[in-house]
Design a protein that fits this description.
This protein is an alpha/beta fold and about 250 residues long. It is about 45% helix and about 15% strand. The longest helix is centred in the last third of the chain and has 19 residues.
């Protein structure tokens, strides 16, 4: 059975002190709950080790927002997958459209990052999704197919089964626009069919595919009700504990 997941991506927000306060508040809110989904928070690198201590013993899991495409060495300012793992993080968000767009991360760079994350026992949350003009041109299917083939379809079935996918239409990230639940379901089902073609039905059925893109408490329930939408990768709404809890409660 595949997991339902609600994952927060804090992006470049919150000082260390603010991040600790948010993680503490979230831990308190969820203390007596048994969520029907796995709860993950993705924090900036500098927060990871401290937040790992804060959430210890709670239902919350920890993710980094990125890792380097190199193992170690003279790469000033970079943070390796081994370093991320050493903080207590279990997950690593890779391939986010902001990384692709602003930091020119190619399929090849992302392929390396995925391999290094897996080699260090991190579970990648791998993001795919099309731009507004690609959606308008009806090219969303070929875009996500190319992204999968370019960076993760090189993996063995065993390694691929450790990955969580996040479909994020770039035109819906931080814009207030959201794919309709039918649009989300249609492309999630297509993504699952690609996985089935590549790795077989069992792997496809067990792959968690999250939706990301202006997902909030008010629309989460409808999105998550779709058979191929297994949760959300949440940006803005993960920065306030009650908002994030509202999305967790959608399950």
């Amino acid at each position: 059975m595949r997991k339902n997941i609600v994952a927060g991506n804090w992006k470049m927000n919150k000082t260390l002190q603010e991040g600790v306060a948010l993680a503490t508040e979230l831990k308190e809110i969820l203390k007596n709950e048994k969520p029907n989904c796995e709860v993950i928070i993705g924090t900036p690198f500098i927060h990871l080790a401290t937040v790992a201590e804060v959430i210890k013993g709670s239902v919350i899991k920890l993710s980094a927002e990125n890792c380097a495409d190199k193992e170690s060495g003279a790469y000033t300012g970079e943070v390796s997958a081994a370093m991320v793992k050493s903080t207590g993080a279990e997950y690593c968000i890779l391939g986010h459209s902001e990384r692709r767009q602003y930091y020119h991360e190619t399929y090849e760079i992302l392929k390396e990052k995925v391999l290094l994350a897996l080699a260090n026992d991190l579970k990648p949350i791998f993001c795919i999704g099309e731009l507004k003009e690609e959606r308008e041109a009806g090219k969303q299917n070929e875009v996500v197919k190319a992204q999968l083939e370019g960076s993760v379809f090189n993996l063995s079935a065993e390694d691929f089964s450790k990955i969580v996918l996040a479909y994020e239409p770039v035109w819906a990230i931080g814009t207030g626009l959201t794919a309709t639940s039918d649009q989300a379901e249609e492309i999630h089902a297509y993504i699952r069919s690609l996985i089935a073609d590549k790795y077989g039905k069992e792997v496809a059925d067990n792959t968690t595919i999250l939706y990301g893109g202006s997902c909030k408490a008010s629309n989460a329930k409808e999105l998550f009700s779709k058979p191929d939408v297994d949760g959300g990768l949440i940006g803005g709404a993960s920065l306030k504990a009650p908002d994030f809890k509202g999305i967790i409660d959608a399950f």
